[in-house]
User: Fold this.
Amino acid sequence: MDRFDLIVIGSGPAGEKGAAQAAYFGKRVAVIEREPHPGGAGTNTGTVPSKTLRETALYFSGLNQHALYGVEYQVKNEITVKDLMYREQEVVRSLRQVITENIGRHKIEYVQGHASFGDPHTIRVTAEGQPERLLQADVILIATGSVPTRPKDIPFGDTRVHDSDEILELERLPRTLAVVGAGVIGCEYTTIFGALGIKVSLIDGRDRLLGFLDAEMADQLRLQMGFLGVDLRLKETVTRYVLEADGVRLELQSGSSLTVDQVLVAAGRVANVGQLAIERAGLAVNKRGLLAVNEHYQTSVRHIYAAGDVIGFPALASTSMEQARVAMVHAFDLPKYKTRVAPVFPLAVYTIPEVAMAGETEESCRQNKVDYCVGRGFYRTNARGQIVGDLSGEIKLVFRYPDKLLLGVHIIGEIAAELVHIGLIALQTECTIDMFVNTVFNYPSLGDAYKYAAYDGLGAIQRRAAAENRS
Ligand SMILES: Cc1cc2nc3c(=O)[nH]c(=O)nc-3n(C[C@H](O)[C@H](O)[C@H](O)COP(=O)(O)OP(=O)(O)OC[C@H]3O[C@@H](n4cnc5c(N)ncnc54)[C@H](O)[C@@H]3O)c2cc1C
Assistant:
């Protein structure tokens, strides 16, 4: 029996960072991973691969260059799966190495194999061709992530029907593609394949894209998808998948049907706890199939913590890492420098174009009866926006009326996922929009659009005050 201070199950974003946090403070840590490579969905099947494919699609399609030089620009006419996946595989390989080095640097024992509970303090590790190994620890962190939902009525066995993991193992590029599910993953892949010139139909039962986004940004994204030629079918569901010789026919609730070469089903994800034998630790999943935790990320068995996708919302790599760090600070009573995950966090959708946000939307303000105004800064009136050729980008600030406290920031366009951090920090430090007015931004820079959004906001306040004085 090997004894540790901490056993971490899973080496995704939550597992790696939680393990490193404890090991940094001198704890003896083991990480157990059942896949051949570390990194989880964050590195191997989710975040990093999809973002790399996005860059590849932009590069090969020359989409960003189309408006710039007045000439049709395309690196290659016939893009193959090999072209598409080459860089994805390179980046994934490099980042696996980075994780392996991080684990090594922190002197964490990396154990290859499938973990399951023997009892509340004991983990059994099984690996093919190896004798079972038993590990014990004072503290256990469950960071086993999530897997794509695979509804039984969808013929995933067919090579033309993929979930979001399998899409990375395409044998050939689709001639036409249906993406079923317009969540973040579905929207991202829709625009990646759309940018490659593939006809994509995006199907979702809801009446708008990405309900958490500010509606104005969601509408903008919808418009931009139109420019990519996406056939968007909202308030529509697939009732049957029929495998035919020349494609997959999707029968739709509306009575129409659609035949496509290949299908990507992005129907959500479920917590990955099925083979952990959590009942032997005295644990059970909640009604939604997730592990419930308190504010310290402790499960109902106090020395067993859980972080990342396995506990559900927001199920992001970014927040998963932070949750695990916070959990380990609590578990080992480490110097209290990180006691909670910041309540305001950024959301980024790496579609083409990118969309990012933090804080409140106009809709949430209305719902919560918060009096607000908005200010907008446009990339087309921004020098850097003109230089890079993104004329449809926009930064929108939502702020409280009349005291100008920043409530939310919403961006669509080039590097939105980076730019949002300026607004995020302003939100976190409870600034008014005057902060943007009084900041010198680089020129030319897209960040400068914050200042013009703030000016626009000041104008909105003045107009509003004037209207109130008149009435
Ligand atoms: C297509 C896609 C795009 C995404 N894009 C983004 C994005 O842009 N930004 C963002 O922040 N997030 C993104 N995400 C979400 C992000 O990938 C996840 O939130 C994150 O990976 C969760 O981290 P985790 O450590 O909880 O779990 P995971 O990354 O899923 O890692 C869990 C690990 O545990 C291992 N494991 C499971 N069970 C066992 C067991 N019994 N024994 C041993 N090992 C086990 C698994 O093999 C896996 O390696 C995306 C996800 C997908 C699918």
Notes: Residues 81-105 form the longest helix (25 residues). Residues 360 and 391 are 25 Å apart (CA to CA).
